[in-house]
Amino acid sequence: LDKTILMVKCIFAIENRNMKRAIIIFWAAILTFSAFSQTNISGKVVNQKGEPIIGANIYIKNSFDGCSSDLNGEFNFKTTAKDSVVLIVSYISYITVEKELFLDGTSVNLEIKLKEDAKVLGAVTISAGMFEAGDQKKTEILSSLDIVTTAGAGADVVSALRTLPGTMKVGNQTGLYVRGGDGREAATFIDGMKVQNPFYTAVPDISQRGRFDPFLFQGTYFSTGGYSAEYGQALSSALVLNTIGLPDGTFSSISLMNIGGGGGYNKNWEKGSLGAFANVYDLTPSVKMMDQNIDWIDPVFATDFSVMARKIIGENGILKAYSKFDYNHSAFNAINQMTLDYNRELELSNTNLFNIVTYQQGLGNKWLMNMGMSYSFNNDDFTFNDSFDTYNHNHSLISKIKFKRDLGELSAIRFGGEHQYYIFENDMYFVKTDTSQYFLASFVEADLYLSRKLVFRAGLRSEYDEMVDRGNVAPRASLAYKTGDESQVSLAYGIFYQNPMYRYLYVNDINEYEKSTHYILNYQILGDNRTFRAETYYKIYDKLTLLDPNSLTKISLDGKGDAYGVDIFWRDKQSIPFVDYWISYSYLETKRKYMDYQEEVMPDFAANHTLTLVYKQLLPKLNSSLGATYIFASGRPYDDPNTAAFMDKMTKPYQNFSLSLSYLAQWWGSFTVIALSVDNVFGYKNIHGYHYNWNGSKRAAILDPAKRSFFIGIFMSFGRDNADDI
Amino acid sequence: MKKILTLLLLFFTVNLFSQDDVYVSKMEEALKEFDSATTIEKCQASLNAFQRISSAKPDEWLPYYYMSVCNMMMGLYSEKKKTQEMYYEQALALFDKIETLKHDESEVKVVKANILMMMISVKPSKGGKLGPEAGKLIEEAKEANLDNPRVYLAEGENLYYTPKMFGGDKVKACEIFQTAKEMFQTFEPASSIHPKWGEERIDQLLEECAALEEE
Q: How far is B150 from chain A (nearest CA, A)?
């Protein structure tokens, strides 16, 4: 019967075809039939749960024989192959099964179980405490473009991250303040290497921006807690920035702004690139235009120069080098804390050099090696009233190597070590130092996928600092479980250490590290165009720097505290056409005894409630986009020396509404963006705290540097979109 | 003896011929399925058929080519962006294999360019990188064969769907579709199993162009 069916099939197939071929096929069929016997292969394809897989491909290697599984996952076909053959069963997003069979004409019946391939789609990822930004990952929350188009962020990576929950809006301090932690508890890493001076040098009562251009990075991992054992020396937060590989193409760029201008050129070769960029900023015109709360003598003047080189090595190696030099200078009348007069001329000159070289190389198909070195120096020179000079110079040399080995599917183990060497030359805070010291760290961490739905991460970090002269061991662990197609829960735990401030370490015999412990529970729904995250945390500070009230330099690590709260994030790019918006809300309860707080109180940088609304509207007909950002933060504590209680007063809530407008054009073959933005449109008078005079009879409010700020700029890029014409 | 020899010779020639002819007839059968594949399930079945053919004839580029097209279509029929992205990634991965085989450069490059454009539709942030790459592939495909109507289809679609602010131009795109339409009328595929798709799509786009003009 089989023979007849096949013959009919053959005849059917040769219909309308030329006669010669028909005859050949006919003969081929006949000959095949007479020469070989056939084996019937049937069975069922199921997944790990035993559910049928529909549309799986079942076939004999090196033959035409096979079929697809039907609605019940069942299959049935005949093959003329005999003896030892390989049966292949494959289906998208599952791991292909190859099975050796011996065929001798007897029917074969099989049940084939396919395992999901965690690499392909929708594997669970560790999300507790972690925001991913950038264009590389499927789990991203903010892209690089989001960073530059957020109103009020001023194209500053850190300012854009401040629109995410867990961050605190601290308008008078430099750095990232995360979940009841101060700016020193957040560390910045570039390509895995710690950056000693990621922000422009802090001056009293002004929040400074980050030093690095957001377009330098392709991936941003912002952790608000519970982060990987690869990173240390931060009690609260890690900001991990990964630089771009080979740029998109040869291009040149020019920018002109009300605060300065710049330009650059990058040349791409097939296996490498080299680019140089320079900028000059002078805030004088914009300071003159807008009302200032700061009595400037010389508004900020800054210039920077950077070089970036990339080289592809072999099939899977890349060498990256980046250098940036910057200089800035400013002078203003700072407050005299005794009299509250703004008559203390403060002049700051800062020079900073940052160099980083990293090399990544795949070794076989299981191993990946990363190594890098960075050297940087930062010189801050302060002059008070043209007479009293003080300086703070530091050099750092960091080397790091790490390895990653795949353990099949998504599981992997990573380990590595780093050496940091510092030179400090300071004349500050009544102490003159000129020392060097080293710091060592190593880590090991494994991601174990127990299934596509369940991943467990365990890590261990160990550090030794020469000054502290004692080692530490910090365990970290996290777990994530996928609860639905797009939803998952994630847990994280970890112990985190950091050195007490160096300036105190020199003059105190401290053999301990500052320490915190994190517990985080996260729930996340990550849809195509909608994201919802809810996270709750508890953070314990066991050891914090505490100043001796009777001395200017003596400290102990008897400080302590805790923080707990809830962070909510909602982003929707879908419900309203051409609109993308997100809402962040943070609830925070925190208390700490540290620095000059001799009792456990809510610190002056913490607010109980922080709400951020970011709105972006695309106007395609006008080639424009409109952005608005609104931030509300409840009041922050301050101390009124006239009352007996310590830190019991609260400032008024903080509010800021910013607008931005950008217009895209193509002029003279360029890709041009004109950007316009106004920060604090309504001129809310935000008070970040108060300075009291020596006897508490007078006070001065700490305000934003300006009531409003205004920005306009033209950015032109040539060649980026028609890279091949050049 | 002579008779036996002739028979033996016949047997071998037949076998020699049959492998190639079976390939062609299997491809034709699979293409029939492919032409009527309007759902993800049917595309999957069609893809499976091409995969089986490639298992027997691993040095032929056409089965991989159609597997890639099937993946692209499955992406188009999918609703979720993540699923679409997965199919487009699978489609692109097949080019690594095709490029090691003897193939029709024009046809292969034009399909790859198409898939890159689909990828941009699900990951607009990659547009800056993939857009120029797709443009380059279309240019190269044109150089390889000036008479391939699918090149003009892709070129036109690229212009048609790129936002104006990034250099898109619907009027110019419609002119190119018209050129493509004319080329389809004279286009002859190299064989019964070589690519010949695209005319229906052109008709559809030209209708949209006509509607645009009325506006």
A: 22
